[in-house]
Amino acid sequence: MTVKTEVRQYPFGEPVRLDMDPLFAQLRREEPVSRVELPYGGQGWLVTRYDDVKLVLGDPRFSRSATVGREDIPRATPAPTRPDGLLSLDPPEHSRLRKLVAKAFTSRRVAQLRPRTRDIVDEKLTQMQRSGSPADLVQGLALPLPVTVICEMLGVPPRDQHRFRDFSDAILSTTAYTREQIEAARDSLEGYLAEQIAERRERPTDDLLGALVAARDEEDRLSERELVNLGVGILIAGHETTANQIANFTYVLLTQREYWEQLRGEPELIPGAVEELLRHVQLGAGGGQPRVATEDVVLSGVTVRAGEAVFVHTQAANRDEAVFDDPEALDLTRQRNPHVAFGYGAHHCLGAQLARVELQVALEALLERFPALRLAAPLDEIPWKSGLLVRGPKELLVEW
Predict the structure, then answer these.
(1) How far, in Å, CA of 334 to CA of 176, rounded?
(2) Residue range 198-207, pLDDT digits in tens
(3) CATH top-level class for 7-399?
C-alpha cells in the first residue's frame, strides 16, 4: 500500500555541530519511509530504518544511473548527477570500472600503506609541535594526511596537492557555492587530470593513475571520459570524508574526555573505537545521493512507485534500536557493530579500508604524542562548515 504522509523539507535545516536531529529517530520509529521535499527537483522518499537502508543500497531495483543528467530528480545539490563516475553507474558498467581500481584498495595493499601513513602523521604532528600550541588540527593534520596519501597513490606531485581541497569543497556543495562555481571547479579539476594523463602517455608511471592510463590505452577498458572521472572521484572520495572525520572524532573525544582517557589507558581499543565513532558520528549534512526505483518496491509497508526517488540516511540506520544495543550511547568497546557508515552493496565505499587505517593511525599518534591534548577554544567559538554535503569544523584549535 501507499501511505499518505506529511511532506517535510529536507535536509531538516542546517546541522548543529555533530548533533543528530531528533526528527530522524522519530521518523525511524513512526514513519520509516517518509515523504520529503528537496531543494531541487521536487519530492522523494526518505528511508531511515537499518533493514530498509540496506535493501535500497543493495537492491538493483534502485538505480543510480537513472538519476544522471535529470533536472527532475530531487536532490540537495544544484546540479544533477553527472555521467561516467563510479557513483553514477549501476552494474555491470559500475562493476567494470570498480574492478579496475579495487585492487589498489585491498586490505593487503592498504596494510602496506600503514607505515607510510604513520610517517606522514608523525611529520605533520612534528610540524605542529615545533610551531607550538595552540595549533589548528584541521590544517595541521586532518586535511593534509588524506590528501597526501591519496595523491601519492595516484601520483599527483606534492606541489599540486593543495588544489584538491578547494575543488572538493565546491564539488560537494549544497548551498556554499553556486551551480556555476561548482561546475567551474569540476572543469578545472578535470582539466588538471587531463594534463596528468597526457604526461603519463609520454612518460608512463607505476602509480594508480598510470595504471588507469594503461587500462585505457593498452587494454581499451576505459573511455577517456571514464578515465578522467575515475581520477576525479578517487581524489575527492579519497580525502574529503576522512579529513572531516579525523577532526570530528578528535572533537568528540576531547569534548567527552572520559573517552580520550579510556583510549589513553587502552590503546588496543582504537580499531574498535574507530568503528564505533564511524557508527555514532554524523558526517553527512543531509541530502545524499538519490536512487530511482525501476519498479514498485514495498519498504516498511510503503509502496515506492517505479520512477520515484529514494534517499537513505545511513546515520539514522546506524542508530536503529532493532540492530544496535543502546544505539544513542557511544561505546568504544561495542562488540557487535554492523554499521553502514561506508554504505552497502555495489557502492560500498571503495576506500573504506584506507579510511580505517588513516583514522586509526591519526588517533594512535595523537594519543601518543599529545596525551594531554585539549581544545583551545570555547565550544561556541568553534567554526563549523555549512552548505556542504559533509560536516566538520573549519578550524579546531588544540593545545597540549
Answers:
(1) 37
(2) 899 889 998 8
(3) mainly alpha
